[in-house]
Amino acid sequence: MAKQVLMCPVCRQSLNLTERTWRCEQGHSYDVAKQGYVNLHVVQHKHSKNPGDTPESVDARRAFLQGGYYQPLQQAVVALLKQLDVKAILDIGCGEGYYTSAMQQVVEQCVGVDIAKNAVQRAAKLNTEVTWVVGTGATLPVLDRSMDACTSLFSPIPQAEIARVLKDEGHLIVVTPASEHLYAMREALFEQVNPHTPEKFVEQLQDLFELKQEQIIDAPFVLDQQALKNLIAMTPYAYKASPERRSQLEQQSQLEITASFQIYVFQKRNKKAI
Predict the structure, then answer these.
(1) Are 111 and 94 in contact (CB under 8 A)?
(2) What is the mean pLDDT of residues 188-209?
């Protein structure tokens, strides 16, 4: 483990790892679970007993991603980290760690955080070199100005917290569906297909972050029936669609479809001291 970067969610001091327990100077302690992650999601921040993704959607996503369909995106993000010479990174909403684990290969220190404990448990088995944390975007589990970059792939963007944990001039990489993402699937699920509007993020983030680069990655593929079912189950479209349309689509033996990802690279604006 490189430099200590984890932060106590109660008193916001730095945590140090002794054997299998993270401790702060105030005496708050957090044990590393046998699977290899630490839970820094303190009770007062919780809204439900099992927040985050359902075990079904976690399973579906893991199975789908293992098929390699989204590998072009995984590789594009890794290439950006190399280009930006990132040493320490925080992946927000890391899920089962498909992207995080690839990022870890090209940085010195990698922290993955997700609110869904069931997803982080799986991630921890995948790669022991990542510091896996169950936590929330409301209080990111790392110290002020400790990260060269943060990534949010199809995940929330707690911008004030991201600005806090990024070093000056640090980068935020956001990946969100581009307007035509999975169009053929959405067309089958919905009467009316509303295009995604990724540009709204640029506007929402403009006070704290300056847009430096943008690109769209298209990944066309043909899905067999099982992969199609997994894709439907892992997307938010699943529970918005009518059950009839969903089951009709799930009965197709294959579907030709294109995933379209919008990647934005932002840099933290330096607020001059007033």
Answers:
(1) no
(2) 95
Sign for the pseudo-dihedral over CA of 190, 192, 198, 200 = negative
Taking residues 108-130, what's their average pLDDT? 95
Question: Residue 134 is which amino acid?
Answer: V
CA–CA separation, 177 and 199 (whole Å)? 10
Q: Is 169 annotated as a binding residue?
A: no
The answer to the question of whether 41 is labelled as a binding residue is: no
Residue 181 marked in a binding site: yes
Per-residue pLDDT at 53 exceeds 80: no
Report the share of the chain in percent with pLDDT over 70.
94
Please indicate if the annotation marks 96 as binding a ligand: yes
CATH, range 16-268:
3.40.50.150
String of DSSP letters for 91-117: EET-TTSHHHHHHHTTSSEEEEEES-H
Helix, strand, coil proportions of the chain in percent (round to 5)? 30, 30, 40
Range 224-247 average pLDDT:
92
Rg (CA), the chain: 19
* pTM beyond 0.70, yes or no: yes
Q: Where in the chain are the domains?
A: 16-268
Which residue has better confidence, 238 or 192?
192
Q: Is the pLDDT of residue 2 over 60?
A: no
175 sits in which H/E element:
strand 166-177
Indicate whether 274 pLDDT > 50.
no
Known binder of ligand: residue 24?
Answer: yes
The reply to whether 47 sits in an annotated binding site is no
Annotated binding residue 28:
yes
Q: Is 68 annotated as a binding residue?
A: no
68, 70, 173, 218 from 207: Cα distances, Å: 36, 31, 16, 29
